[in-house]
Amino acid sequence: EEGVATLEESKYRDHLESMTKLLGRFISLKEANVRYLGLDAMTKLARIEGMADKISNQMTTILFSLRKDLDASIRKRALDLLFVICNKENSRKITQELLSFLKVADYKIREELVLKIAILAERFASDLRWYLDVVLKLITLAGDYVTADIWYRAIQIVINNENLQKYAAYTMFKALGDRSIHENGVKVGSYIIGEFSDLISDKASGNKLLQTLHMHFETATNRTKALVLSSYIKLANSFPDLIPKVKGIMERYTVHADE
């Protein structure tokens, strides 16, 4: 009986593999409905144990559907399929492809695309520095679509991983050197630099860190200004020579319209 069951399972797997190859042809056909149904069926098939790897062999065609198909619903289906078949082996390739697509993606799909990239980067991060770089890239490419859940999660991961803190502080210091950085980048950067500025004192003086943060202050929203002001206080604790400057800034903003 066990032998029969094994044989039946083998036949079942063979059928699934044949189906995968057939569906791979479907998603290359001219008819939009057939391409959509093919991607939809592949997504369902990919959830069966062991099938995601087989479907990954169709990666080139799936990526073509994501990048080039004129039908938005087909691009959405291709995105869903890539999300399902992503694993440790192909995660960097898929994440990089999705980041490239983000540069030109339709605005209707951007929020979901950003969320999926952030989830995959965290789920398959063998190196948390790579994860942080991906989140920073998301903020750079599509900052308006990076929700608080995403950027605050990045901060949590830095706080909880001591070996990431110095890299994070220096990376955000460099990122804040760009005046055009998105406000979500200012939020992440001000928090991380406020917490871990002492770790990069060999690379940047307290005065330089304060200047870099302060050049974003005037254009920030009130909520972000509050985060930045909090970072100034933390900087003054790490670099006592900044106390007079920080005191002056704080006195200037003691009476604030949003208080």
Automatic annotation (TrEMBL):
UniProt keywords, alphabetically: Membrane, Protein transport, Transport
GO cellular component, one term: membrane coat
GO terms classed as biological process: intracellular protein transport; vesicle-mediated transport
InterPro entries per the UniProt record, alphabetical: Adaptor_Complx_Large_Subunit, ARM-like, ARM-type_fold, Clathrin/coatomer_adapt-like_N
Subcellular location: Endomembrane system
Gene3D superfamilies the UniProt entry points to: Leucine-rich Repeat Variant (1.25.10.10)
Transport is among the record's keywords: yes
Recorded superkingdom: Eukaryota
Positions of the Clathrin/coatomer adaptor adaptin-like N-terminal domain: 16-254
Protein's recorded name: Clathrin/coatomer adaptor adaptin-like N-terminal domain-containing protein
Organism: Amorphochlora amoebiformis
Lineage of the organism: Eukaryota, Sar, Rhizaria, Cercozoa, Chlorarachniophyceae
